[in-house]
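Residues determine shape. Take a concrete instance:
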Amino acid sequence: MKLKYLVLAYNLVENVDISAKDLVSSKYHGRKTNMSLTDVPRLTEVSVGGPYCDHLLKDMLSDFSSYLSQLEKLSLCRGFKTFDDYLNFLEFQMNWGIPIQKFSGLNNFKQMQLTLDVFDGEGLLYSRSLIEASPSLHRLSLQLRPRPKEMLGEMTWWSIGGHKHQSLKVVEIVGFTGLTCDLELALDLVKYAVSLQKLIIDPRQLFWLEEESGSNEITREPEAARNRAQKMQAKLLSRVELEIL
């Protein structure tokens, strides 16, 4: 039997050693663990989530360093952050400035999906750096989890700036609320991706996507977000198609 797809979720294993010549896709969501990959020449898709994802980002994707050049699809799901995590990051930012990780070896990435809390400033910085380090990226999906009720006011999106991205064709933003920070994020990505063809806006919150409901309490906010998203059309270049789900 040839192992092609491997999924591990929320296990208590401290060490994971993977060696499979036919492995194409690997998914691990759970606690921090020691991951070791050997002899996986066909591996092209990696998905990680939870505390292990946070560890992997801080460690510059080192567990996959030997195989980054062959990966084509990356999905990262940051662990849930609390309001205290947000305040701690703001304090660190005020005292030490904005830290920016510089990733490398991501030249072959074609698709990237990044899931994080909308107020996760550190996660947004990681996202920015990952995008900049992926010159062959064709499709980007940002999945934004909603912020807690106790967090008031607007968030800030740090503009990417610098060199423009030449290959990015499709950008999807899930969890779009229509707040100023969401609009800034979408328009900044449009300016950054000079070859962008389509911007997909999905205002549904992530915890609504798996269930169907006709309740007005469920549909009211997404409908308002759709109306706000529609107003972006006037600010988009003619080459960019706006699709609102």
The chain has one domain: 72-244.
